[in-house]
Amino acid sequence: MVEVMPVKPAISIVCPCFNHGRYVPEMLASVHAQSFPDYEVIIVNDGSTDGTKKILDNLHHEKLTVIHTQNHGPAAARNTAIAATKAPLIFNLDADDKIAPSLLEKAFAVFSTSPDLGIVHSEVQFFGARSGRFELPPYSLTAMLQDNIIHSTALFRKEDWKAVSGYSDELIYGLEDYDFWLSIIELGRGIYKIPEDLIFYRTYKNLGDCRSGKVKKCRRKIIRTQLTIFRRHEQLFKACPEEYERMLKLKKVWENEPFAVQWLKQIYYSLRYTIR
Q1: What is the DSSP track for 87-137?
Q2: Does an H or E element contain 250, and which?
Q3: 259: which residues sit within 8 A by CB, 6+ positions away?
C-alpha cells in the first residue's frame, strides 16, 4: 500500500484577533478572492471579551482553522497561529484589515525567484475613518532604526520565524512586528516592497478602538517599548552610529527624568491623541 502524503499549502495566512470578530468576514472575503488559491488561514482568538468567539465559531471553510486561547497578547497569538501552520511562507494579516486579490500571487512570485529575501510587503492604503496612502519611506537600515517602515501585514519564511524564536513576548505593549522585522534583518535577509497598493489598513475615528491607538496615549509604554527594542537589537543599532546615540540619549533621559516631569509629559500625550 502506498502512503499518500498530505499536500501542504504554499502560504499560511495567520490572523491574531482580539475583539475584532465583526471585521473577520470582510477580511476573509478579501482572502478568498485571491487569484492565488494555494493557501490556508489560521485565526487565533486571543481571549476576546465581546462576541468574537461566536462569530468565529460560525465561520466554516475548508481552508480555515480557528484556535481559541486565553488573552496573552498579539505576539503570543501570532506565534500560536504560526506554530499551527503547514506552509513554508507565512503571511501576517490582522483581523480588521484587507488585501487586494493579487497580493498572494505577486508575493509568492517574488519569493520564488529571490531565495535571499526575508520580508515581502507592499504599498498600503488606509480605509475606514480616513483614506489615502499610508506613506512609508523606501527601506534602508537607517530609516528602519528610526521607525518601523515595514507594515505588519507582510510575508516571511517560517524557517526565519524559527531561527529568531518567533515574535518576542517582551513586547507586551505593541511593536512586536517591528522587533520581529529587526530580528529577520539581523539574519541578513533582504526586504522587498511590491510597488502597488495591495494592503488595506483599517483606521478608526476613536483611537481607543484599536490597540496601537491605545498605546499612543501612554508615553511610558511607548518609551519602555522603544528601549526594549533597543536592548534586544543594540548591535544592529551600532551599525548606524547616529541612531545608536539617539537611543542612548533616550535611555539616559528616561532613567534620569523626575517623576513629576514624566507625569506632566503623560498629560500632554493623552491630550495630543485625544483632541483632534
Answers
A1: SSEEEE--TT-EE-TTHHHHHHHHHHH-TTEEEEEEEEEEEES--EEE--P
A2: helix 241-256
A3: none
pTM here is 0.89
Rounded to whole angstroms, the Cα distance separating 152 from 91 reads: 9
Per-residue pLDDT of the chain (276 residues; tens, 9 = 90+): 444 445 689 999 999 999 999 999 999 999 999 999 999 999 999 999 999 999 999 999 999 999 999 999 999 999 999 999 999 999 999 999 999 999 999 999 999 999 999 999 999 999 998 999 998 999 999 999 999 999 999 999 999 999 999 999 998 888 999 999 999 999 999 999 999 999 999 998 876 555 555 556 677 888 899 999 999 999 999 999 999 999 999 999 888 866 665 656 566 556 555 533
Among 162, 176, 157, residue whose Cα is nearest residue 229: 176
| Inter-residue contact 234 to 179 (CB < 8 Å) | no
Helix axes 219-232, 176-186, angle to 10 degrees: 10
Domain coordinates in residue numbering, the chain: 11-203, 220-272
Strand partners, 68: 45
* Rounded distance between C-alpha atoms, residue 121 and residue 90, angstroms: 12
Say how far apart CA 163 and CA 183 lie, in whole Å.
Answer: 9
Q: Name the class of domain 11-203.
A: alpha beta
Concatenated DSSP letters of 171-214? -TTS-HHHHHHHHHHHTT-EEEEEEEEEEEEEE-SSGGGSHHHH
